[in-house]
Write a structure and sequence with these properties.
The structure is a single chain. By secondary structure, this protein is an alpha+beta fold. It folds into 2 domains: 96 residues, GIY-YIG endonuclease, CATH 3.40.1440; 50 residues. The chain is built from 6 helices and 5 strands. The strands form 2 sheets. It has a 3-stranded antiparallel β-sheet, with helices on both faces. It has a two-stranded antiparallel ribbon with strand order 4-5. The radius of gyration is 18 Å and the shape is globular.
Amino acid sequence: MSKEITTEQYYKITFPDGSTYYGRTKHHIYERWGNHLQTARLNTHRNKHIQTVYDEYGYDDWVFEILFVKVYSKDQHSICENTLIHDDSKALNIRVKYTSKQRKLRDEEIKQQYRERYRIKRSNMTQEEIDKRNKISNERLKKRLKNRTPEEIEFKKQYDREYQQRKRDNKVVDNKEV
């Protein structure tokens, strides 16, 4: 049983068809949210159910909610997340168990696929198409930021303040304590 205690943020994504996805992260919560959107956009989301929902509806109507923050051991975090998943019959979460070596190889493979797809896609686009795509991405980001709830805004401010404090106290570099 893991004894390492961590603080993790739990979140829920609700999709236009009523299905949900529960997750948790030790990293910045909006970075994780952006990761879901980016991988779905690139057609590389690890959860094929979420990819299918994205392909069918897009992501403009996805609702991202911050549920709570917990300080637990890794095992307790897994139990908490699994409880959320099993209590919701419309949850799209899947479980794939990897060893750390398999995970590292898989992550490197996925990164390489991203780089290759992005390079090919960009090389086939005119500058006008690239500018248009960037403009659309910026508009979507503004829309998402505009639609945040006061609780999400306050949570982000508090998280940023705490992160800055940890950075000053522990000399955090690139999300890793030194």
